[in-house]
Amino acid sequence: MRARIEDVAEKAGVSMKTVSRVFNHEPNVREKTRLRVERAAQALNYRPNPSARSLAGNRSYLVSLVYDDPFAGSAYIMEIIVGMLQACESMRYSAMLRPLEFSSADHVASVENSIAQYRPDGLILVPPFADDAKLLHRLDELGARYATISAKSKDARVGTSLDERKAAGEVVDHLAALGHRRIAHVAGPAPHGGRVWRLSGYRDGLRRAGIAYDDSLVVDGGFSFEAGIAGAKQLLDLDDPPTAIFAANDDSACGVMHEAFERGLRIPQDLSVVGFDDTPTSRQVWPSLTTVRQPCREMGRIAAEQLLASIRDAGAGSLVRVPYELMVRQSTGPAPARTKRR
């Protein structure tokens, strides 16, 4: 027969309320008691009944990840999903993926409808939703718990972030140290906070290197392979093309590399390329991609952990700043002696 919570309580020598508090990861439970309950549950092969658990706790034990549908297949989103799932599994929570079109005029209503239909205990918002003032205001009105990932607002309270501006500045520092003076940037999409930070960091790096900002070396792009190709075409068609291109993310950087190879350029001898995120692709392409390591999986896990902490205790949960690292690989090298129009 299936073990019941009463059986776990009897075997552990504690009350059913204590067992419930352990399974719900509530605070103020002694570690010795927690271990005794967990061992009893394991010995009895006890599995909580999701329906009964939800009714007893007046919760759905469900977390929803809200992200922009065009980026659904990106390595960045997939890494965040894996991290979120790891945290949810350890806390006995289910996860729901909610891709939406940020460009849609009714995306706030779509999120509200999703909350009404599925009743998640909280949401994790990925940019650009993490920066959408209207959505955040509506969630606050509804009293909904949420955590943000890489929100550009200084008012973000729960979730995780990374100093993307400083990281982007270090990219330019690295390229300038290699002798590059014509350093270009394929910027991210306009609604995304990462665009603002990475562009600002790019300009910071230019200032430190004593390089004048040149509008022609910054092109609108996106976070896709195709955006990288389009951006590279604009930049490499210039009369005085760049010797280095810093792309908005790894997917875009791979598009830049593709276009460079199509033109017969060698990387890094003729053109240095840098990305952002350190997705698995950055290590699989050749030459391997110099990039900023943004621990996306860790960010997904931490955001979920902080959200769940705030769900258990309204005063808990915080904004966690995670470290980054510039991963120097084979796609960057010394600036060529001269740049030729190709």
UniProtKB/TrEMBL annotation:
Pfam families in UniProt: LacI, Peripla_BP_3
Keywords for this protein: DNA-binding, Transcription, Transcription regulation
Domain HTH lacI-type: 3-57
GO molecular function, one term: transcription cis-regulatory region binding
Segments crossing the lipid bilayer: none
InterPro entries referenced in this protein's UniProt entry, alphabetically: HTH_LacI, LacI/GalR-like_sensor, Lambda_DNA-bd_dom_sf, Peripla_BP_I
Domain of life: Bacteria
PANTHER family in the cross-refs: LACI-RELATED TRANSCRIPTIONAL REPRESSOR, LACTOSE OPERON REPRESSOR
Name of the protein: LacI family DNA-binding transcriptional regulator
Organism from which the protein derives: Tahibacter soli
